[in-house]
Amino acid sequence: MLDSLKSFLDGSVSGTPGQLNNQVWALIYVLIIFAGVSVAVIAMNWLERKALAHFQVRLGPMRVGPHGLLQPIADAVKLLIKEDIIPAESDKFVFWIAPLIGLLAAFTVYTVVPFGPSQAVSDMNIGILFMLGVSSLAVLGIVMAGWASNSHYPLIGALRSSAQMVSYEVAMGLAVISAILMTSLHGTGLYGVSSLGDGTGTLSMIGIVQAQQEQHVWFLFKFFPLGLIAFVIFAIAMVAETNRAPFDLPEAESELTAGFHTEYSGLRWSLFMLAEYAAMIAVSSIAVTLWLGGWLRPFPNLLSGATWDFIFALFPGLTFLALGAIALLGTVRMPKHPYFKIQTIGLAAFGVVLAGIGVLLLAVPIAAKVSNQSILSRSTEALMNVYWFVAKVAVFMYLYIWYRATWPRYRFDQLMKVGWKVMLPISLGALILTAIVGVLLG
Amino acid sequence: MADIGTLHYLVVAAALFVLGVIGVLTRRNVVIVLMSIELILNAVNLNLVAFSRMWGNLHGQVFSIFIVVDAAAEAAVGLGILIAFFRNKETINVDEIDLLKW
Amino acid sequence: MTPVATPFFFYMLSGLAIIGGLLVITRRNAVHSALALILTLLAVAGLYLMLYAPFVAGVQIIVYAGGIMVLFLFVIMLVSLERTVKERQFNRIWPVGLLASCALLALLLGVYAKGKTLFEGRPAPPLTESSNTQQIGLMLYGNYMFAFEVASLLLLVAILGAVIMAKKRI
Q1: ipTM, 2 decimals?
Q2: Helices C6-26 and B30-55 meet at what angle, rounded to 10?
Q3: Residue C77 CA neighbour count, 13 Å, CB half
Q4: Cβ burial A112-142 (10 Å sphere, 16+ → b, else e)
Q5: Which of C62, C88, C114 lies at the terminal end of a domain, its last residue?
Q6: Residue % of chain A over a pLDDT of 70
Q7: Mean pLDDT across B30-49
Q8: Three-class SS of residue B100?
Q9: Min CA distance, B75 vs chain C (Å)?
Q10: Is residue C40 part of a domain?
Q11: C24 in a structural domain
């Protein structure tokens, strides 16, 4: 086991743990992903409350930690110590298993999400197909949750939610197909379709990003309006898939008293919320991989070369330094009352930690440039890949919160009408046009 | 045991098939009968894919995709019929759906 | 990619599939049967993966477990009454059905035992799994083009049929 650990680290073999049949590293990746997603969910919880508050010209949680930074932890503790209420006539087994199925479906998608050219838990050849299939299993969890609660609000909420998810899955799948079509082209540039190459596309997620790298263009901009249309369809469908605003009628508090998770309390409800946020991050990762170039930094081919690589490799460190500076600025602006002493110290410590991480992340590419050790340059590369991927997914997360703050909710019949009568024809049309353009230009 | 060969998969498929047949023949609940039919179709699919692996070509897999399509269509229509019947007579037991005979 | 621990996975997956099948036909509550069927479908998808059929496994999960089972659960929720759980679950002639099925099983196993030699000695040819989807696509749009179009017509007819059957007034 030790040499399987070492052989993976020293870069003599390259490939995902799935390809190398390396179970130990696969397990380590799974644990890292699990930890990362949990941290991301906690951060999302905080960011959502603060950003929604600032959109609504108020402050959001400010008391629990400095600027509410410890609020998610307080929420988690509250949920854990709540009483576990199970409705009397409910089906106990189904009631218990429903959140687990939703959670399973949300987290299994991460098996195929690539963070680098060989950093995925297992790069399956049917990666995208696997992702579509597993995300369609989430519907089952919701249906069972509504059924097992034995009460009409959850039942109606579950039926509506699953009808919505199934409808938007179709549009999502068609948008994905039109991105897959573009992987079979080999020409470079916005409209490049080379007639060389065997015209073989790929369904594997790493292959899709590598196709974007080879074609020197993000699929967002390929065949100009068509890639954008497919991306927009997917972006709207993914918001509907995860039951987020403006498609959150099934779980909106003012409409259905929280829909399918009405009867769930405490830890079980937090499992639903975890599944929802994890699913949001998962489908955003899919959107980033398919259209936004995955782990590729901006302009990998246009601005290539060692100096540009070095400049772009400084971005992670600079980002964290900027975040640390913002935190320290917040420290300076804290009220000078002795009541706030602990919060000021806490925020200053947080700012120092962020700045320290920034300095560490700056040190890696600088050290890689100064000395020429291969482990440092490989870790710079890995750092860059992960950073750009996470940055793009973070943009999507902010967009989710922005949508929730800005747009009113769709009524259910409007929602279904949009799903079937608007999204499906547009995505079908984009698919057909992509295929026609690909054949005509080739 | 030894290497897992085609015969192992065929036996599993036969077991699933027989379980499905028992379900169709003995249960009274229409929905469970329809689910047993899905079991039968899955057993057939497993057979096809096992043979496709044995012969090394993909005809079996393509046929099994068609069977999945067919199963979806049949489940949809069957459940539609069930709903239409449930509206008339509030029952989902197979032996109570005998309106044609008085 | 070399397969690993094949007998373990085969026995686990086929055990899950058969247990799921048993639960489907014996549960009193239709929702439990549906859950058991989902378990069977996912286990069979795993068996397809072991048989080097990743595309069929993907189709199985997307269409069967993610689509058809949702449909079943919807209908179960719509038509399930309280009294069905307390009624008699099996037919009056269930021994006959059981006997016939056992005869069928005996027939199948007898055929397999007698023809055992046909299945051995045939080395499984190495299938390249990297182009499974591409090859299936080529066959679907090549040899089986007509069947493909007819299948799409079948789905159209099924949609129409289901909508008309479930409408309140035609």
Answers
A1: 0.92
A2: 160
A3: 27
A4: bbbbbbbbbbbbbbbbbbbbbbbbbbbbbbb
A5: C88
A6: 94
A7: 95
A8: coil
A9: 7
A10: yes
A11: yes
Closest chain C residue by Cα to residue B74: C158
Number of B/C CB contacts below 8 angstroms equals 238
C22 and C75 belong to one structural domain: yes
Q: Dig out the tokens for A331 from the structure.
A: 């420290």
- Indicate the CATH number for domain B6-96: 1.10.287.3510
Extract the tokens encoding C24. Answer: 């489907």
Q: Does B23 touch chain C (CB under 8 A)?
A: yes
Tens digit of pLDDT for each residue in C98-113? 999 999 999 999 999 9
Q: Are C77 and C137 contained in the same domain?
A: no
Is C11 part of any domain?
yes
Return d(Cα A171, Cα A431) in angstroms, integer.
11
Collect all residues of chain C within an 8 Å Cβ-Cβ radius of residue B88.
none
Tell me whether chains B and A touch (3+ CB pairs under 8 A).
no
Contact A185, A193 (CB under 8 A): yes
Q: Whole domain around residue C76: which residue ranges?
A: 1-88
How many domains are there within chain C? 2
CA distance C68 to chain B (A): 6
Residues C5 and C74 in one domain: yes
Residue numbers in B near C120 (CB within 8 A): 5
If asked whether residues C83 and C5 sit together in one domain, one would say yes
Same domain, C19 and C73: yes
Say yes or no: A27 contacts chain C, CB-CB below 8 A: no
Name the neighbours of B, counting chains with at least 3 Cβ pairs within 8 A: C
Q: What is the pLDDT of residues A42-62, one digit of tens each?
A: 999 999 999 999 999 999 898
Rg value, chain A, Cα: 23
In the block, which residue shows the tokens 């930094």? A297
8 Å CB contact of A133 and C65: yes
- Please say which residue of C34, C62, C88 terminates a domain: C88
For residue C124, tell me if it sits in a domain: no
